[in-house]
């Protein structure tokens, strides 16, 4: 008889333990879900506000709230830009789409040529280079033999 009561008692404790675990999970699950959604929402807003996406020569720029969205977009990126008030994240955000500017290719500096006299046994390559540096701003020199003459030729930025 005592054995039956003891088994019943143990079974009841196991049931109560399962109920407590289930109640705890029911309370924790919504909190974890809410925190996860808040993190994803916040990171989505930050990413959409701080990126310029360059795909197929169209760029996108997040400009914050939708107040005066079109005017701000056109003022920042020109009259051909298009603005959209994006409400997909819950908070309305102004997205500005415009043609990406191709970065200008830097033009190499023009190189001019000059002369600094003759190269000789007393004035070889390093001497020629020094003479060119003194004569032309940013200049460098080298000896170039033309027939029986050795000329000190200089190159410098124009």
TrEMBL record:
One of its GO terms (cellular component) is extracellular region. It comes from the Eukaryota. Keywords: Antimicrobial, Disulfide bond, Fungicide, Membrane, Plant defense, Secreted, Signal, Transmembrane, Transmembrane helix. The chain crosses the membrane at residues 28-49. InterPro entries: LCR. It is found in: Secreted. GO terms for biological process: defense response to fungus; killing of cells of another organism. Its main location: secreted. Belongs to the DEFL family. This is Defensin-like protein.
């Amino acid at each position: 008889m005592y054995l039956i009561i003891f088994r019943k008692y143990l079974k009841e404790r196991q049931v109560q333990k399962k109920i407590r675990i289930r109640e705890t999970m029911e309370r924790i699950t919504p909190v974890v879900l809410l925190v996860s959604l808040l993190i994803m929402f916040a990171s989505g807003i930050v990413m959409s506000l701080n990126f310029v996406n360059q795909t197929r020569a169209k760029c996108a720029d997040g400009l914050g709230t939708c107040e005066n969205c079109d005017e701000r977009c056109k003022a920042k990126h020109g009259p051909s830009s298009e603005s959209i008030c994006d409400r997909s994240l819950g908070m309305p955000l102004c997205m500005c789409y415009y043609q990406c500017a191709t970065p200008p290719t830097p033009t190499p500096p023009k190189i001019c040529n000059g002369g600094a006299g003759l190269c000789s046994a007393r004035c070889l390559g390093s001497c020629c280079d020094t003479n060119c540096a003194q004569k032309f701003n940013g200049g460098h020199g080298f000896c170039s033999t033309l027939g029986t003459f050795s000329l000190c030729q200089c190159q410098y930025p124009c």
